[in-house]
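Supplementary Note 3. Input sequence used for the single-chain structure prediction.
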Amino acid sequence: MPVRILADSDVLSRRLLVLHETVTSPARQVTRSARIVVVGSSNTDMVVRVSTLPRPGETVIGGDFFTARGGKGANQAVAAARAGGSVALIACLGTDAIGDETLAALAAEGIAVDAVRRMAGTRSGVALIVVDERGENSIAVAPGANALLAPEQVVSCAELLSPRDVLLTQLETPLESVLAAARAANGATARVILNPAPARDLPDELLSLVSVLTPNEAEAARIAGVPVDDHHGLEDAANALLRRGVGAVVITLGAAGAYVATTEHRETIPGYRVEARDTTGAGDVFSGALAVALADRVPLGEAVRFANAAAAISVTRDGAQPAAPRRAEILQLIGS
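The predicted structure, written as discrete structure tokens, is reproduced below.
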């Protein structure tokens, strides 16, 4: 199937109008009542900057050290809230000081945290992150309370979902809970966005419940079972995933943008040229912003453009959640 490259000169004005209307138009404001329900993890990131990532057995003397709130679920929830979404989070935290601080910070972002459960006698999740001078990273995660997110907790929160809603989830919590969330969303005829990270093999049932899958190239190759090292690889992976029941595939390509595939068409949507400082959480920011645009009933191609802009801004900053941009910043980059 031919690939269509979106030309900025042809569609920029239309995109800006669509996205502007989600803020200013009375008709669009009605659709803003749609909620983004995020099911996923919450961690505290401990980050060290280094010149190069250490090889096995190597010690690299680093520079700056800082901590930031992270975890793919919480990252996506914060990104969606800052991008203008009405967001609720279903997650687990420990009964430690990290959990106290995290819950307060999420609430301060305007995220509904009624469905965040505190797990007695359990520590909150922690991620150890090393970032090199190119912005590439290496991450190790101790999941803590995230590993205790149970299907029963997810299903008991199904009343949060309605046909207008978007469920956003990832793979840092037990797979059976992700599947339970997708089933609940489909039962409510809500759309499901799955960011399949960290990469792992996925059952056909889960993929058949997914409206939009947002892997990067490595994740797409792992799930589809085909190499993704050129344009033909992108097509092959997308075709394999669509055959397994995914509604639409959006393969993120870093600075190059994103490859979008449905059964009807293919698009390569360009990214934005920025100087990357830290790519941690960029995929989460992309997925969170994409969920907001889709909840606003923006067409998929335009929604990906919005998400590309959000992710581009995020990689120019340190950390995961601290780097997530506000809606006005995203629209400003699109306009520039």
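The longest helix spans residues 8-24. The chain is about 40% helix and 20% strand.
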